[in-house]
């Protein structure tokens, strides 16, 4: 196996703790919080098989659990998520749990398309959502 991945933050090398590679993408998300009767809306800034970062006006406390519906094309994948990071006025980092095998496969297939797509300015995220 290769060397462990590192993140450089403020000139300090920090070992990467994530289990899955992240992919930058903007997917619409519905966020359901316990005790709130309506979902809040957000958008992913990056996603992996293990979690995502959601840009949203509605920040949630670290450790809170929410239910997500992430739209991959016309498919809404559902998962529970635990808030792992909190950036006031920006968003939250979330770790997935309890995603069905079918939804995991939809997400995995989508991430495979992201990985294979050439990084060009001409390529739109909509191009990646066609199944």
What does this structure look like?
The structure is a single chain. The protein contains two helices and nine strands, in the order βββββββββαα. The C terminus is likely disordered. The chain starts with 5 loop residues before the first strand and ends with a helix. The chain has about 130 residues and is an alpha+beta fold. It has a single domain, classed as Thrombin, subunit H. Strand 7 and strand 8 form a beta hairpin. Strands 4-5-6-9-8-7 form a six-stranded antiparallel beta barrel.
Concise synopsis of the structure shown:
The protein has one domain: predicted glycosyltransferase like domains (Thrombin, subunit H), CATH 2.40.10.220.
């Amino acid at each position: 196996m290769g060397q462990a991945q590192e993140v450089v933050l403020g000139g300090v090398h920090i070992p990467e703790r994530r289990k899955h590679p992240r992919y930058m993408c903007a997917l619409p998300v519905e966020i359901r919080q316990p005790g709130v009767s309506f979902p809040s809306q957000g958008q992913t800034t990056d996603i992996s098989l293990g979690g995502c970062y959601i840009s949203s006006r509605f920040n949630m406390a670290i450790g809170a659990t929410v239910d997500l519906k992430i739209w991959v094309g016309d498919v809404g994948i559902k998962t529970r998520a635990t808030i792992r990071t909190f950036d006031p006025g920006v968003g939250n980092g979330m770790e997935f749990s309890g995603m069905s095998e079918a939804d995991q496969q939809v997400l995995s297939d989508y991430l495979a398309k992201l990985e294979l797509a050439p990084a060009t300015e001409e390529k739109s995220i909509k191009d990646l959502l066609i199944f």
